[in-house]
Give the backbone structure.
Amino acid sequence: MTSTHGIDPKLDLVFERVVSVPRELVWRAWTRPEHVKKWFTPAPWTTVECEIDLRPGGIFRTVMRSPEGKDFPNLGAYLEVVENERLVWTNALLPGFRPARVTSTCGDDSPNSEETGFLFTAEILLSPQDKGTRYTAIVRHGDEAGRAKHEAMGFHDGWSSALNQLVAHASTM
Amino acid sequence: MTNQSAQLDRVFRALADPTRRAVIERLGVGPAAVSELALPFDMALPSFAQHLDVLEASGLVRSRKKGRVRTYRLAPRKLEAAETWMATQRAKWERRLDQLDDYLEQMKEEK
């Protein structure tokens, strides 16, 4: 299954993985709070709360806890829910499709949420592959900060060798 | 927003413009005077000077005036900060998906 919308390498992060489990299981891992809490936040951070209303406009809320015990709430809404195939959510909209503030970071990592808040839309695509599942995660950015930051990603990817050269050169100046 | 974050935003904003990126690229070769930097661009000098101001405010470049000539040079530390931010974003998602894959194996066994 491929995204029905284009990918802009300057703005988007794309991850593709193949796992040896049926896609119903992958779907469940993404869509049930008891499962999401188990893996969603990069360790040593943890997800201590998760609320899901699995329908377009429905809530996707998590609370991430830092190793020091500080909690960071994240709030967003689902945009598309196609069981076992496609899940799309964003932090640009709150539940009920109400526009959000730029600082929300639901689904992004929260370790540095306060410092790196930006709007994004995440899309998870599932398709069967052999006896397992191929899943693709696409993270699209759009607000000014995201654009600027991803402009720098284009910089990172496309220009990385030029960049390394110029950094290396500049270091010797 | 923290100081560090505001600083990073300035760096990214500075990089989000082709003229300013071209200047950065040129300065990678070595320091240059304003007149030399402006040469490839079909742009009025005051407008070009604004680009240089944005770059300098971001900390990506530094300038020094000697007599009537202002010379710019690259300050590479900020570029590295921008790169690091992006790499961090990617790494965090990779880590999250690693955890998902581990968890899926666990779910499969428990089924």
